[in-house]
Amino acid sequence: MKKLLILPLVLCSLSLFTPAHAEDSAGNSAVYSAIDENGQNIFTISAMLSEGDEYISKDNVLYRIETINGTIATAKRIGEETMPDVSWLDTGEAKPVFAWEEDAKAVSSDQTDNRKLIAMYVTHSDESYVPSDGTESIEGQGGIYDVARAFRDALQQRGIDVILDESTHLPHDSGAYRRSRRTAERLLQKRPDAIIDIHRDGIPDPEQYKTTLKGEQASQVRLLVGRSNQNSDVNRAFAKQIKAVADKQYPGLIKDIFIGKGNYNQDLSPNAILLEFGTHTLSKERVLNSTDIMAHVMSTALYGPETGSAKGEKNEAESKASAAVKEKNKSSLSGIGLLLAITITGLLLFALAQTGGGKAMGTKIGRNIRELTGGIIGKKKENKN
Q: Which of 164, 188, 189, 323 is nearest to 269 (CA)?
């Protein structure tokens, strides 16, 4: 009897770790497509779709998966998704009060308001980019780690402390999330403001992720939220906040938001998110071009616009650096002027000693200055007759 009671609990707990990237029986990435009632494609994703999954499109339309037939799902259009108000980006005055903050009080009392800390890890360690890495999967640290490091560096340049755990969680199977969970739990002991799992998609068409940002070829980013955990609502609010900020600052950066069965370890923290930087058929260089822009968005979504003390400190540092350069240049010019004055005085005394003064002294000084400067100063006027 006890075994019969335990079995459903085990099956239920295993369902919480549904992989973000589904695989077929041969171990290859399985690609799912969602279509509307008219058969028009809504989105494609390398993740197993389930009835009840939801999807927020690029233009903020909400869909819900109704039926599934093989790798084709039919989705119902629910309507416009209400997105967070980000009008504070126009004023740039103060950090807004975010929707999820009341539910995300995981910061300990000994941490100051000035502390900024983000934790990152990589569940699917082998993920790579075929055009740049030569393969979609590298046994060990794949090309996805280059993306994670670039993202970390870009965040750090904005004054944010970042802990990037480079542990691997191979193999790339349904157990990867159980293995990366230990990494996430370890990172959360540092009490970060957010924890991010870095991925790339596995859909074959690179065009679905290509975009142009700030005049550069770049990649879109997809946000994934797990719906099978107690933090699902606040995780979703966090993802919507990120998208709303990005849509305002960099339209075209965020591809969409997928809310799927499973939890992607997001039950561990209210401010947990899974980011998919491009897909395996996209060049890694395009993806790297998006990391700095995504860092700007993430910084703004978490900490508000770069204003007040943060911006003031940055401007002050730049002003000090500029002043130091000017002072150095001024000192160099002063030194050159002093040396030139000493040299000219010496020439005057030398010419006076040799000629006794008068016109001969002037001729002597002119010749010496011409020799000293290579003819730049004291050049004789040409006789035009």
A: 188
Query: What are the C-alpha distances in Å from 138 to residues 46, 126, 335?
Result: 18, 5, 59
Tell me the pTM.
Answer: 0.75
Name, in order, each residue with C-beta under 8 angstroms of 286's C-beta and a sequence gap of 6 or more: 210, 217, 218, 219, 278
Alpha carbon distances (Å) from 128 to 186, 206, 277, 347, 374: 25, 14, 11, 71, 62
Nearest to 203 by CA among 87, 53, 47: 47
pLDDT per residue, tens digit, the chain (385 aa), is: 444 443 343 334 444 444 445 554 334 468 999 999 999 999 999 999 999 999 999 999 999 999 999 999 999 999 999 999 999 998 865 555 555 555 555 433 344 457 899 999 999 999 999 999 999 999 999 999 999 999 999 999 999 999 999 999 999 998 999 999 999 999 999 999 999 999 999 999 999 999 999 999 999 999 999 999 999 999 999 999 999 999 999 999 999 999 999 899 999 999 999 999 999 999 999 999 999 999 999 999 999 987 654 454 444 444 444 454 445 445 544 554 555 455 555 545 555 555 555 555 555 555 655 555 555 455 554 444 4
Are residues 263 and 236 in contact, defined by beta-carbon separation less than 8 angstroms? Answer: no
Q: How many beta carbons lie within 10 A of that of residue 317, not counting itself?
A: 10
